[in-house]
Design a protein that fits this description.
The chain has no helices and nine strands. It binds FE2/S2 (inorganic) cluster. The site of FE2/S2 (inorganic) cluster has 11 residues, from loops.
Length: 112
């Protein structure tokens, strides 16, 4: 396991989500969604529990039009930003895979 900085907290606005990818030690790529809700930051694997595809419809476009949920662009599933729980869609009742996150010296840091 290793701690990796994915972005600066100051670069994330309220209700903003960003996609990023990390190269792991084994050479594989880990794609993540970094979400800021108020003073909190949540990180999930960018992988719909329904089929495993990435959620965004354009780079960094994860929120639905209401701004209340993260949305899978492929079939429209809606996920709560604060816990990744799917409230509507083909994967209702499932959740995005959360990734442990800390804020250290202004950096958003995940454990991979
Ligand atoms: S692939 Fe995500 S809701 Fe269908």
């Amino acid at each position: 396991m290793s701690a990796r900085a994915v972005c600066r907290l100051a670069d994330l606005k309220e209700k903003e989500a960003r996609g990023c990818s990390l190269e792991l030690d084994d050479g594989s790529e880990l794609q993540l969604i970094v979400v800021r809700e108020g003073s909190e930051v949540f990180v999930y694997r960018n992988r719909c529990p329904h089929t495993g595809v990435n959620l965004e419809w354009q780079p960094h476009q994860f929120y639905d039009l209401s701004g209340a949920f993260l949305q899978c662009a492929t079939h429209g599933a809606l996920f709560r930003p604060e816990d990744g729980y799917c409230v509507r869609g083909p994967c209702a009742g499932e959740s995005l895979e959360a990734v442990p996150v800390w804020i250290l010296e202004g950096q958003v840091v995940v454990i991979t």
